[in-house]
Structure formats: structure tokens, C-alpha cells
Predict the 3D structure of the following.
Amino acid sequence: MDLKQHLIRLAQAHGPSGLEGPVREAVQADWQDLVDDLTTDALGNLIGAKWGSGGMQPRRRIMLAAHMDEIGMLVRAIDGSFIRVASLGGIDSRVMMAQSVMVHGKEPLPGVVASKPPHVLKAEERSQYPATEDLLIDVGLSAEEVRAKVRIGDPVTVDVPALDLVADRLMGKALDDRACVAAVSWCLHELKTRQHRWDVLAVATVQEEVGSRGAEVAAYHLKPDLAIALDVTFARQPGVGDGDNAYALGSAPVISMGPNFHPGLGEKLADAARRLEMDVTLDPIPGRSGTDAWPIQVAQSGIPTALLSIPLRNMHSPVEIVDLGDIKRTGRLLAEFIAGLEEDFLTTIAWKDPLAESAAGEEKTA
Ligand SMILES: [Zn+2]
């Protein structure tokens, strides 16, 4: 499997939250040979199932979740020959000026975010950047043509080619979180030549950027015994990560610790890394993780959940940067962990049940 080409295909596909069709097709095409079964649920989550060999019925199942949606915009108004937009999932207007975009109307329309010539900027405009409501998209058509081809509510995404940087690093849009979808792909690729007792449910989730809505539906529907969510984290760069939770490119896998994650599961992931003689980075998240791990953990009657992260520079911009080694190591760790899952694994991370213990104590004293 050519990981770099796979990730380039995923990054260049368009899929803002709720409108993930083209990226789902791209993932589906590359997962076809890696799983036993591929389905799409009612919300648009893509579920790739790879059946395990365990004899226990029903077979134990682990869910992997990485989101395939990207931040984008929605057409809000047509202003003559220009298009006004609303943010879809946290667009940063600071980095949108003069970007190439694609308006997904009746037909895809390439365009740009208009930018005033610096010569005509007023003094106060030089020291501030426009709000998302002030961005104007120019598709090079007349007002009449724009009205005929563009509808209110059409999605708009950044349209930039992924760039193969030297040293196995890739730059592009939507690497949050397609880098993690690619890590899941790499895990499935490694599992092709390994035995595993548990069923693996690889889910490319939808609508994470608007509140992890895809993961919530998938966890409810699939009822996994364990779950591992994957998302990007802040990579260290000047101004980011001086004493904060930010990690160097090349420092994945990053294992998160905190109330959103099962501590026993985090430890077992670290054990699997030790078997591979692989270094891991621990990432304390004291509250809400803002990832798919959040709703998955409290689905059904509670699902032991972990989060693996991949450092990424320039998050939520069209020039996100990831390290391909980070993606491969994360995928390898997942495969090693899954291949090592025994049928009684859940008992090894079980919480002590205080009611059962006090009942046992009463029996003894009786
Ligand atoms: Zn993300």
C-alpha cells in the first residue's frame, strides 16, 4: 500500500461536515481490498468490517474511529457576481484570504476568496482581518450566471493540491483528520497478514467538526466492546506548544490520558508499543477531548475508549503538515494491539466492582 498516494487522494477529496460523499468514495475505493465488508450507515459513516477468528459468540469487537469530514463553508447569500458564505465547522477567516476554493453547486465551480488590493486598504483595515461574514467568493461569472449555478446552502471547500514536502512530510488541506483515516488504513493493511481474534470495525466518521455526531451514531449502532478514536493534535511550532500540550512532528503515537479515556486501555496500548520497541508520547487531557472519543465513551452502557493522536502543524488551515512516519507508527501500533487482543481482554481492564466485593466480603463473614 502506497501510504503517501493514499493520503494525497484523501486530502484532495472534498467533504465538509454533512457532505462527505466524495471523500467517502475515496476511502471506500482504498478500503475495498483491506476489509471483508463495507457499509454506509444512515448518517454517512463508512464502516469497514474485518472479521476476527475468535470462537467466543458473539465475537468481541473493537471500533476504530477517524473522522473524514473537513471544515468548510456554506453559501449564505449571492451578492451580485460574488458569493457570501457562513463558516461550517470552524473556518479561520485569517487564513482564507486569496485562497483557491471550490463551490459545489449544480456543477463544481472553481473560485477564489476575493482580496482587496493593498493600495486601497484603509489604515484600520491593515491591522485587522475580515470576519467570515465579510469574505467574498469570486467564481469569475456574471451575476446572472452565478444565480443560475449557485444555490443558498451549497458547500464550499478550499481547493489546494497536497504537496509532497521533503523528509516524508505532506502538506495539504483536511489532513485533520484524513491523516488518521490513513493510519486506520495502515492498520488494516498490516492486519491483512496477521491473525486477530476480535472483529475490527474501522469507521471513517462524519460530522466530527460540528460535534462528533457521526461517531455518536456509529458507537450506538455498532455496540463495540472497545473503541479507539484517532485525531490530530497540535504540533509544536513557534508560538504553539511552549509548555502547552503540543508535540513535535515525529513524536506519534500520542496516547491521551484523562477522564475521557479508559486508563487500563491506555496502559495496554503502551504495552503494545513496548513490544514493538516503539516510543510513545503521553498527552494529559483533563476534560473534554473535543474528539470522537467523547461521545463514544458514553454510548450504550459505556465503552472503554482510548484516543491516539498524530501531531499536525497549522491546524484548520489549507497548509496543514503531517509526518508520514507518525501515521505509519500509529497504524502499526493499532495492528499490534489488535493482534494481541485475547478473548478475555475485557476482564484484564475491568474496574473493580465495589458491590460485588462487598457481597463477597459479607459471604466470608457470614
Ligand atoms: Zn479532527
